[in-house]
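Everyone, carefully examine this protein record:
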Amino acid sequence: MFKRPAIQESLFCGTLFVSAALLFLVQPMLGKMLLPVLGGAPAVWNTCMVFFQGTLLLGYAYANLVAGRLSLRSQVLLHLLVILLPVMSLPLGVGESINLSVPESGHPAVWLLGVLARIGGLPFFVLATTSPLLQRWFSTIGHPRASDPYFLYAASNFGSLLALLAFPLLIEPRLSTAQQVWLWTVGYAVFVFLVVCCASTALAGWWGAGRSAGVDRATRAGATAATGFPTPTLRTTVLWVVCAFVPSSLILGLTTYISTDVAAVPLMWVVPLALYLLSFVLVFGKKPVTLSARTRRLHGLFTLALTVALITDATQPGWVLIPIHFVNFLLAALLCHGTLASERPAPPYLTQFYFWISFGGVLGGAFNVFVAPFVFTRVFEYPVMLAASYLLLQLRQQEPRPARARMTDAGLASLIGLLTLGLVLSGQSLSIEPGRAGTLLMFGIPAIAAYRWVSKPARFGLSVLAILLASSAYIGMQGKVLYTERNFFGTLRVAEETGGRVRSLTLGTTIHGKQSLSSMSQCTPLGYFSAAGPAGDVFRELRASLQSSDVAVLGLGIGSTACFASPGQRWVFFEINPAVRAVAQDSGYFSLLRLSPARQIEVVLGDARLKLRRSPQGQFGLIVVDVFSSDAIPTHLYTREALKLYMSRLQEHGFVAFHVSNRFLDIKPVLAGIAVAHGWVIRGRDDATPDASARESGTDPSDWVVMARQLEDLGGLASDLRWIDLSRLPNRQIWTDDYTNIVRLFKWQ
């Protein structure tokens, strides 16, 4: 159809660009639709990623099968039929039946994978087949660059990268979910048209060249010899898989670690994924990027520093550490993906190459989602894969190392591990405080020793793993850790401060409750819920005007709020994480729920909004919304529809209280916008600097908002000058189930 080489190249590049863009628009679109029903847990994104990787593998398997068994004419006819199949599942959407089918117990990843397959599996599968198949077609049209079509892979990843950045920065802030779905459907129609044009061009070249049906094995061998590409072997295939496995696992490990242990900044997952795609663009482009020996040494230095930082819970200063994490990840990705680019085969083996890359990616994602949470109590898969990127350098070497050299590497790495273990045990037996000096002693010396071998990949990688293994004996900065559990919703930790004065529950980077060990027989809330802070104001008003009313609390923690209960009240807690309920109720680490004066306490597992809908209208005198996971906001609990649900479950003079403390986001403009739109009253108190007496009594800085139908329902809070009127906030906005905009809520100062 198109004969000019420049037009042919532009057509195929454009088609792959559109296909990849649609792929990376549908991923966050579907993830955003499903994120609310699982409480906004970071693992939702990781599970979505595993699904997309698995579907990509199926798409590449289809492309490899078709290209290997059918003539070009048959490939084109079959694929034109396949790309029309998703029309039956458009437009995309999450129905009410899916919301009601969320499992109340167990690991929800399997359920989530099934839902993704039902609502987005077919369109994603079709788009996944495009990149390898069209590159294979391009290699047959007689174009001057047909012998090395891998530059098209760079164009495909560039489309993915732009779509990934456009969604949170341009599309989500401006378009509702329904509009996004409509835009994506139009984009799919454009994609179908472009594929038809590519198919016509490929067929024209095929007929002109007089190609025969089927795939001639002799042609494969000839193409390999003519272009100088290596012939695929078992070793090559294993190398492809490993080079794809490591960065796939690494991106999920880094995302989990950054978003739960360093800074739970919304949209932070975009950055690692963007760097992951950028690495493909750089190594498969017309002028591929390679890492020099000096850059590899820098990668080794960063790997050691970040491993020690993870072991010692060093997360500050974030403005220094986070960029180092990202730069080091890019170096690791360039190392792995650069190996893939250097080991790429001749075009006849192209679809096979992409299949094995995808297979390695699926294994890496599955390892993080289905294996790592049950093997590691912390996000140790992240530094393990950093070390593996160095072991990969050894695997690249064509000649196997002598057995004696391998034994020397393992022996010296073991000595590094024993040195680390000895320093850790000695330091703790001498009661050395785990500060900078203690960290330097316990881990700095082994790290310096390991860095001497940075030019020997196997020895260095094994040394990093040995340091990591020995760190299991380290108590850490958070004091004595009594209990750790990691599940779909994050890593939960119970710890005692040094000296044994306070016991705390931490999820991610945020403390979700404290109890003084000197008053384990008393129900005394501390931290965000101290009686001297805004929470004390809220519950004193409850006792004054709604003493016998039922209370609903969205978010359990250790049950601190239950200490404010009156003897005649029934309190209902809604908690999505079963591990939190087990620790608060049954573990023996905390006693606040047991000591609460409430007549009855019930803990309901599941998404708070879905479960609250089953409560009778007008049941509660107070509803407390305390649902932030670290600093991430479950947006579906702050939409207009959610707030209308809360108001419908309140008694005539009841009110809603929101705990909105957050380091990165200010949700108050959303609450104010919805309140003003419905004529409700809203007040807020930001207790950013508690006075000396309050701090002495265990009060932490906190930010609270109250909302009611009319001013009289707030009682004394309406006249308290510390509670300011939020209805006049200048940047009010309204979230709905169809539209949210996280970017506008960032605290830029």
Remarks:
- The two ends are 56 Å apart (CA to CA).
- The chain has four domains: 1-215, 231-392, 403-473, 526-745.
- Residues 559 and 593 are 6 Å apart (CA to CA).
- Confidence is low (pLDDT under 50) at residues 210-226.
